[in-house]
Description:
- The protein has three domains: 7-88 and 359-380, Serine Threonine Protein Phosphatase 5, Tetratricopeptide repeat (Alpha Horseshoe), CATH 1.25.40; 93-207, DNA Cyclobutane Dipyrimidine Photolyase, subunit A, domain 3; 246-350, Rossmann fold (3-Layer(aba) Sandwich).
- By secondary structure, it is of the alpha/beta class.
- A five-stranded parallel sheet has the order 3-2-1-4-5, with helices on one face.
- The chain has helices spanning 7-21, 25-28, 45-49, 55-65, 72-90, 93-105, 113-119, 126-138, 143-156, 161-171, 177-188, 201-207, 286-304, 334-341, 353-358, 366-370, 373-380, and strands spanning 246-250, 267-274, 310-314, 325-328, 347-350.
- Flavin-adenine dinucleotide (FAD) is lined by residues 29, 41-45, 48-49, 77-78, 80-81, 84, 142-143, 146-147, 150, 168, 172, 174-176, 179-180, 183-184, 187.
Amino acid sequence: MNFEPSREFATQQLEKFINKNLVEYSRLRNFDFGPNNRSNISCLSPYVTHGIISELEILNKCLKKFSFLKSEKFIQEIFWRIYWKGWLELRPKVWVDFLKDLKEIKPSFQNNQNYLSAINGKTKIECFDNWVNELKNYNYLHNHTRMWFASIWIFTLGLPWQLGAEFFTKYLYDGDSASNTLGWRWVAGVQTKGKNYVALEWNIKKFTNNRFSNIKLNENPTQVIDDRNYSIINNSFINSNLSSNQDLLIFENNLSFEQSDFNNQSFKNIYFVFKGNDTRQIQLDEKVLSFKKSLINNQIENLKNKSFNCKIINIQDLKNIKESLLALYPSVGENLDFINLNNLKNISFLYRKIDQFSWKYCNKGFFNFKNYIPKIIQEFI
Length: 381
Ligand SMILES: Cc1cc2nc3c(=O)[nH]c(=O)nc-3n(C[C@H](O)[C@H](O)[C@H](O)COP(=O)(O)OP(=O)(O)OC[C@H]3O[C@@H](n4cnc5c(N)ncnc54)[C@H](O)[C@@H]3O)c2cc1C
């Protein structure tokens, strides 16, 4: 498995997946055949998370080749991402509470044997230890494996989901505040209250082609209780006024300016904002930071070839800029936290059209959201 940090690689990967593997996606997607055999899934998440390719671009390509019915499962997965994002945007306190819980919990687990064994891949649960090494080596895990991993972490090793979400964020190339936090909450059974995801030995064996033995798990766990309820905030996600010749900020979630809704506007300068570990609440592995930096540099290179004025700046530099700035909306997560914590009121946001249109349907569960997928597709494709 190879994640080259460039838009060119990402678009080739998309083409290849759609042309060769999409037809079998629905039948094979749940199998984890190991890091050397990933053709049954797209492996696009590191690029989608960084906005190197957009969800709309994927949907467009997909629907040009296949009917909605033939590609429905894959399309739904793309919409899971949009849904999780919107769900968190409507309830940003879930993110705030996750970071607060993490800060409170972490010190008491520093010498916890189960925690240390888990993060070092020494639990003696063969599959789990294997996945820890795979995550650290490849900075990616298959979706089904993420579910098993999180379930074993929470229910067999008895560790808080928040520490697991932090561990994933540290190592995943696709680490995403919404998909990751809500994915862990979902497995724990606090997202859809009372419905936890329990990893079962037979299921792991079947969907890993019997690659692992010694899978002794707690298959009848007690519930994780979290009584907090989150009400929906009132935010209409309206764009700030665009005037020509302003500066534009791009954060790590929207790197491909040319794919954005604002690619026809003229901006004086485009600043790509890099956020290092000095300003992060969750520290990232050096490989992940370097992946992000390389993606940014690749975008700058591409834009410079087209005569755009653009450069990379450190997020700390935003504190020294006093004039008003426009920014492609960074979404609930560490970059938005930085803007809010530092009270950078001179930054105003531009939202993606697909988010503005879709997020209003994220007020309930995914099964409700799913009903709007054809409507969203009709609006944009
Ligand atoms: C505990 C847990 C943590 C996760 N953390 C992240 C994360 O930090 N970042 C992240 O992008 N995804 C996360 N996911 C979702 C999912 O596992 C990955 O998006 C998927 O494995 C990426 O591989 P792929 O690109 O080959 O996916 P494919 O199966 O090829 O799907 C295509 C695209 O659809 C989207 N997608 C697919 N499944 C999901 C899903 N369940 N939720 C949201 N979007 C989805 C992704 O953008 C993906 O690239 C998490 C899931 C779980 C259970």
